[in-house]
Write a structure and sequence with these properties.
A: mainly beta; 5-stranded antiparallel beta sheet; about 0% helix; globular; B: 7-stranded mixed beta sheet; 4-stranded antiparallel beta sheet; 13 strands
């Protein structure tokens, strides 16, 4: 059974810092991995999707990497801003499966 | 248009009521999903529809009944719910072409409170 964990559970940083969020999964037979952000009481916003054949994806100040063999993905946020404050979730889709398994999330606070 | 819409935004119902949640997308996606999310927890998959057919039911109690009338609409019918069913209900969709499944797009959710 696929299990997904995220470290740290919560993170508080001053504005302008570069930061790394970690996502680990137990079964390397994945189809893709997706990073989301969620503001309190809201839906999920897709940030980046990495296919299993890819090593990284970039969008603006965000960069996500994937190492299937070690069961890890990282989300790098450059020059953090208070507007980045949210919960960040990673979700792993198994091969040819239709269901994602979500990690518990990292709650990020960026202080002005 | 990468939007998934959900109605209503908020719903309060008694344990004897019957209500429905609605979800709509116009991205041409052929897979649609219902998730349940409790406070400070990740979303939990409930149902998946693929080409309007139910493909995954994650052992959800029968008081939740999904329906996919067409490729753009997804409903969740609620009946005789319990207070512990109070949660944020999220709808999502994704493109699906054979074995290729792309990223999921989520709606804003319906906040359900069962009294």
């Amino acid at each position: 059974k696929q299990e997904v964990t995220q470290i740290p559970a919560a993170l508080s940083v001053p504005e302008g810092e570069n930061l790394v969020l970690n996502c680990s999964f137990t079964d390397s037979a994945i189809y893709n991995l997706q990073w989301f952000r969620q503001d309190p009481g809201k839906g999920l916003t897709s940030l980046l999707l990495i296919q299993s054949s890819q090593r990284e994806q970039t969008s603006g100040r965000l960069n996500a990497s994937l190492d299937k063999s070690s069961g890890r993905s990282t989300l790098y946020i450059a020059a953090s801003q208070p507007g980045d404050s949210a919960t960040y979730l990673c979700a792993v889709r198994r091969n040819y499966g239709q269901n994602f398994v979500f990690g518990p999330g990292t709650r990020l606070s960026v202080l002005p | 248009d990468t939007e998934v819409t959900q109605t209503p935004k908020h719903l309060v119902m008694g344990m004897t009521n019957k209500k429905s949640l609605k979800c709509e997308q116009h991205m041409g996606h052929r897979a649609m999903y219902w998730y349940k999310q409790k406070a400070k927890k990740p979303p939990e998959l409930m149902f998946v529809y693929s080409y309007e057919k139910l493909s995954i039911n994650e052992s959800v109690p029968s008081r939740f009944s999904p329906e996919c009338p067409n490729s753009s609409l997804l409903n969740l019918h609620l009946h005789a719910l319990q207070p512990e069913d109070s949660a944020l209900y999220l709808c999502a969709s994704s493109q699906e072409q054979g074995a290729r499944i792309d990223e999921q797009f989520f709606g804003p959710g319906t906040r359900l409170t069962v009294l």
